[in-house]
Write a structure and sequence with these properties.
homodimer, alpha+beta, Hypothetical Oxidoreductase Yiak, Chain: A, domain 1, Ribosomal Protein S8, Chain: A, domain 1, 2 domains, seven-stranded mixed β-sheet, three-stranded antiparallel β-sheet, 42% helix, Mal/L-sulfo/L-lacto_DH-like_sf (chains A, B), oxidoreductase (chains A, B)
Chain lengths: 339, 339
């Protein structure tokens, strides 16, 4: 791979350096820089452009608008025995998760199941980094977080829910874990933005206009609301995310997060939950045999030509450390100008 | 409401009597009869015909084919501190849930979160009865169970997953709880059967034929596989259900349940999980205020004309104790002939 007029080639170390420089230049505290930077590197490493270097632009905007505490000091808050509660102190979620993870693992192993509740955090990344950090300990993981209110409930006419991702992970012995991580909206908001820029209509089922009517006009859709995936079922799941990572842990809903944003266009602010389950806490010594038995299910999927959700991501992960990645030259120059 | 040629009017007490008689007549043990009967009554009471008296036909077939232990004695199996494991002894799930529930509530209140794993049970009902039994204690609930392998993974060609319902409940002070309970398949298998009998085509997106191609022919769809709702996202959720209520708790996948059935057409056999979370275990004394704050989310849904998932069910529940219910005369006569 070589540079050309529109794309530039970077090694993962180059990506890391770039992320460090950009984050420091915009005032992020030294305790946070490596953690946030590694999230950016992980996005590029796994071939997820939307969660790679591109996300630095969100970080910059969030830092510049004062919507994240760059020097946040997360702290563990007292809670029940199988609960880990971390107050992120208004900082990016990574440091709070980093602090809570060892205790989440310890409590899941002690009790069989445990829940990590992160409060007052800014969440701009995918959930799979958290999921994989938990499955790496041989635990099953389930995570979700609200975002900003851009999505209408099924049968409704106005934005109320966030894109509200749900992510799940299952440890596979000597294999990449089984991991999914998806928005409960029909698509990412960025997809509609891309259609708008390209002057292309969007498929029906993605958005409604400001009057609540279905629309294929991206402009009208952005002024209206996204729809959830899967009709009323996706809408119910999105409601669940609002509740679990909102009021259940004493934090904001997506509507409250958007009100808090107050037009800054910063990353969402609020809560996140991660549930961890230890198979050994349920099955004791038989756990390993049953975890191995789950492989038949994965073979049943791939054996009929269907994909496992994170296959492409894991394939990229094996390729990019040697091959590096390419990013848009315009994005690179925008970031390096300011860095 | 009066009887006519096709329908017959019953009070809920009539439904209860009918269920008791049918279940006893087919050899179900006295410890199970009231529990299974109340599930049937709850279905009729809530206006869910598919989970009411009609389900007795499944119970009969399952009893007659010897695929359920009519005299099962569920027992608590040792597990970690926040885990309740109940071996249903091959019986209907109700007795195992009934035995595990008090301990699930106790453990959720002690640790903040707890998980109930029911093994070796026959599950023929909806999940909302379990969900509502948990929310009645002021706890948040999440439940799932595999079924028989009738559903293909997204991108696949052959049945692998069950209809794999996911259900969730949130306690609302002085109100019916927020509850959803849906199959991760695009539709219930029974819907396709109804189209077949009526000689009507089915909508695209419901099924594929035995060669894995989309079909609107109900006959071809029944010979092939159902699809999941919401494409690859629904497929991922269905996989999660297989894992959580299968290998994680040492129990069968939907493919294993169908193999175990061996053509008997009995109800699915295997595991079920229920996760319970105590808001007070996370928030302490602040829990009540945040639970109350969630009402704004529900108002945000209903205020724009959208429905809450179980609204119609709760409305029926207020109506049927006085008004009674109507069931198909043919079904009633089939059941009373044998009872």
């Amino acid at each position: 791979m070589a540079d050309d007029k529109t794309m530039i080639h970077l090694s993962l170390d180059d990506v890391r350096d770039l992320a460090y420089r950009v984050l420091r230049r915009h005032g992020l505290g030294e305790a946070h820089v490596p953690l946030v930077a590694e999230t950016i590197v992980a996005g590029e490493r796994d071939g997820c452009a939307a969660h790679g270097v591109y996300r630095l632009t969100n970080c910059i905007r969030t830092l510049e608008t004062g919507k994240v505490n760059p020097h946040a000091v997360p702290r563990i808050v007292p809670a029940a025995g199988a609960v880990v509660r971390v107050d992120a102190d208004g900082g990016f979620a990574q440091a709070a998760f980093d602090q809570g993870l060892p205790l989440l693992v310890e409590k899941a192993q002690a009790h069989g199941i445990a829940i990590l509740a992160i409060n007052h955090c800014v969440h701009f990344a995918a959930l799979w980094p958290e999921i994989e950090a938990v499955t790496a300990h041989g635990l099953v993981a389930l995570a979700c977080t609200p975002s900003h209110a851009w999505v209408a409930p099924a049968g409704g006419t106005a934005p109320l829910f966030g894109t509200n991702p749900i992510a799940f992970g299952w440890p596979r012995p000597d294999r990449d874990p089984y991991v999914f991580d998806f928005a409960t909206s029909a698509v990412a908001r960025g997809e509609i933005e891309l259609h708008r820029r390209a002057g292309k209509p969007i498929p029906e089922g993605w958005t409604i206009d400001a009057q609540g009517n279905p629309t294929t006009d991206p402009e009208a859709g952005l002024a209206g609301a996204l729809l959830t995936f899967g009709g009323h079922k996706g809408s119910a799941l999105s409601t669940m995310v609002e509740l679990l990572a909102g009021p259940l842990i004493g934090d904001m809903t997506s509507a409250e997060s958007l009100a808090h944003d107050d037009g800054a266009l910063a990353s969402p602010y609020g809560g996140e939950i991660v549930i961890a389950i230890d198979p050994a806490g349920i099955l004791g010594e038989a756990a390993a045999a049953h975890i191995a038995r789950a492989e038949a299910l994965f073979e049943g999927i791939t054996g009929q030509g269907a994909r496992l959700p994170s296959e492409r991501r894991f394939a990229a992960r094996r390729r990019t450390p040697a091959e590096g990645v390419t990013i848009a030259r315009e994005l690179y120059e925008e970031l390096t100008r300011t860095a």
